Amino acid sequence: MLVVADTSKKPGRRDSDPVVEAFLSFLAEDMVRFPEKIKPLDEALFTRIDTLVGHLPFNPHEDLGDEPLF
Predict the structure, then answer these.
(1) For residue 1, pLDDT beyond 70
(2) Exposure string (b/e) for 3-28, b if CB count within 10 Å is 16 or more?
(3) What pTM does this model have?
(4) What is the pLDDT of residues 47-70, one digit of tens each?
(5) What are the Cα distances from residue 48, in Å, to 8, 51, 52?
(6) Which of 28, 9, 1, 5 lies closest to 18, judged by CA?
(7) Are 16 and 70 in contact (CB under 8 A)?
(8) What is the DSSP code string of 4-57?
């Protein structure tokens, strides 16, 4: 896949990361083509994630603002 950044500024368009956009486009296309690959989060994976990061403090009500975080 070749990813090329569009350096022209268009009115009303937010700055975005072309790599993230390309990845999200790939993901969306893959989900459309292979919906059977979409699986719910299972208990084993949830437990593994919780073991790795469960000790980190977080606030589920924290205002993250309107801008993208990446």
Answers:
(1) no
(2) eeeeeeeeeeeeeeeeeeeeeeeeee
(3) 0.47
(4) 999 999 988 898 889 988 887 766
(5) 44, 5, 6
(6) 5
(7) no
(8) -------TTPPP--HHHHHHHHHHHHHHHH-GGG--PPPHHHHHHHHHHHTTS-
